[in-house]
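Now for today's protein:

——
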Amino acid sequence: MQRISHFPSVISSGFFALAFVTSFSVAQQSDTTTSLTPTGLSITPSDDKAALIKAKLPQEKPGGQVSITIGDKVLVLSDDGKRGDEKPGDGIFSIKTEFDFEAFAKANLQLAEAHKGEARALFSAGGRQHIGTRRIVADGEHLLFTDQTGRVEQRFHLPLTRDLFRVDRTIDLPLFGQPLGVPTGGGAHRAASIPHSLMITDLDVVNDPTRTWACRSPNQPPVGNPTGEWTYWRLMENIANGTASTSDYIKRFFDHWNSVQTINNQNVLARPLVYQQIIREWEIRSGGVGAPLLPEESPFRLLGIVLRLDLRGERGVYGGGEAGEGRFVFSLHDGNCNNKSKTLILEYKVPIAGCTDVRDWAQKWVDLAGSANYNDDLAQLTDVFTAAGANPAAPNQSAIGQIRTNELLPGSPGWELREFVLPRIGGAMEQTTVKQEPQIQHNNSSLLANFVNTQWPSLIGPPPAQHEITPFHNSINFLAGAAPAAVLWNVPNSMLTVPTTPSPNTPPPATVRDDALFELALNTCSGCHVIETGTPFAHLDYNTPVGQPALLSGFLTGITLPDPRNPAIPRTFNDLARRAIDLDNAANMSCAIDGDIAVGNLVLERLTTPPRVHAVH
C-alpha cells in the first residue's frame, strides 16, 4: 500500500505529539459533550465514493467505539478490528464512510489561495502557547503543509485535484490550524486584521468626536460627545435600561468598594478610596458632594474596542454566547486627562447564534479592514451588543456578560481585580466571583495540591486548560471573590502526585507536572495579568500617554519568558495572532450539514477543527 507523507508517530507524551493535536465534540443524548484529541489522522480511499478515516485517540479506551452525530446520523469510529479497522485494540479508531474527494480537493485549493505560502503561527491545540510556524503552499499538484515546531519539521502533501486520490493510498493529514475536507462557505477571503478587526485602539476610533469623550492632551478636560455611543456613560445607561438614572446606576456600581463584600463566603475587603477618588471627585466636578453625576465630567476614556469571537460556543466556562464577546476597555483619569491606575472592561455576550449567522458576523469584522466608512461600520457592529434592549431575553434586556475592573489607586494596599454581573431579576450590577481563580489562602496548600493531583488530566489535556475552579472543592470554599496581584500560584513538589513524564503540549524539559501548574496559574486572573505573562496587570496599559494608542502587553503582541516555577522552560505567547487565525476560520466556516456534502467530509472537518480556548481572558 502506497502512502503519502508519514503517519504521525503515536506519542502519548512528549513534544512530538504537539503537531498532531486537535479535538472534536462527541454528541451525546444529554446536553454534555466530550472533547477528544486525535494525535494522528489519515484518510484512505476505498473506492470512488468512500474512504476509510483513521484517528489515533490516546484518551479513549483501546478496543472501544466513539460516536459522532452529524445531522440526524450517528457515526461510529471503532477500534475492534471490524468494518475497516485494521487492528483491534491499537488505539486507532476507524470508520469507512461515503466521501466526496472532489470537494476535498476544492477545499485544499481554497487553502492554497488563502495562504499564498505565508508563514503563520502555530499554537498548541486549544491552548495559548505559540509553539511554531506553518507554511501552506501549492507544490505542483499538491498542497504542501510545512510545520516547524522547535527543531522538528513535518510535511504533509494533500491532493489539489480529484484524480490524485488513489484507492488504498493513505494520505496523512496535518492537525490543528484550520479545518480540512469541506470547501469554505465564507465570502472572498481576506486575512483578519488585528488592528482593524480584533484589537481596535486607533486614535481615530477611541477619539471619535461624535461617539467618545476623549482625552487629547494631559491637564485638559476631555472633548467630544460626553453621551456618545462609545462612552462609558452611554454604555452604562444602556445596561441600566431605565431601571435607574445613569448617575445613580454608576454610583451604586462603585458603592461596592465602600464596604466588605462577602463573595462565595470570602470577605472582599472594602477599598473606600476607590469610591472617593472616582465618584466623590466626579460629584464635586458636577456641582458638589452628593450632586448627580454629569456625563461631561466623566473620568473614563476609551482605550480600545475588542472582538473576542474566540470565546464563542458553549464549551468555555466563561465566554459569551455562540458568537463570543465584544468588549470595551476604559481607563481612569482625574477629570483632566491625567492617568490614574484603574481599568474597567465591559464584556458583552454577542446575541447571535447559528453557524451561518456567526460566520456572517465574523466576515463583517474581517471586512472592516477595507471599509471606506470605518467608524460608521464599526458602530453598526458594536450596536448589536451594546444597544439598550440588545438581548430581550436577558436581565435588563442587556447583552452585558460581565464587567471586570482592576485597580491600584493611591491608598489601595495592592492591585486587585473584581467582577460584576447582572442578577437574573435585573436591576443593578452585583459583584460576583472572579473565574478560574482560587482563593488566595489556598495557594501552596494541601487543598490546591489535591485539586492539581485530581484534575491534572483536564489541566493538561490536550487540549489543555479544560479544568474549572468551582465554588467548592472537597466541600471547602474554593473560587475567589476577588483577585489580588501579583501571585505566583504554586504547590510544593512534596504534595504532588502528578506525573513527571514529558508534556504533550510544551517542548522538553517541560513535564506534565510543569504544565499542570502552568495551566492552573495562566488561567487565573492574577496569573494572566502579571507573573505568567510578564504583564504589569493591564493588557491595555492604563498609563498609556494621552494622545497615543493604548500600549499592549507582550502576551497580546508576542513575548517569550521563562516559566516562573521552572526557568528552564520558555513560554511563548502571541495571543492576537492566535485570535486572528480563529477569526479567519470562523469567517470561512463551511456550515455544511448532512445532505449538503458527503458525511465523511463532515467527519473529517470535525476531526480537524481546532478546539477553542477554554479561558477567561
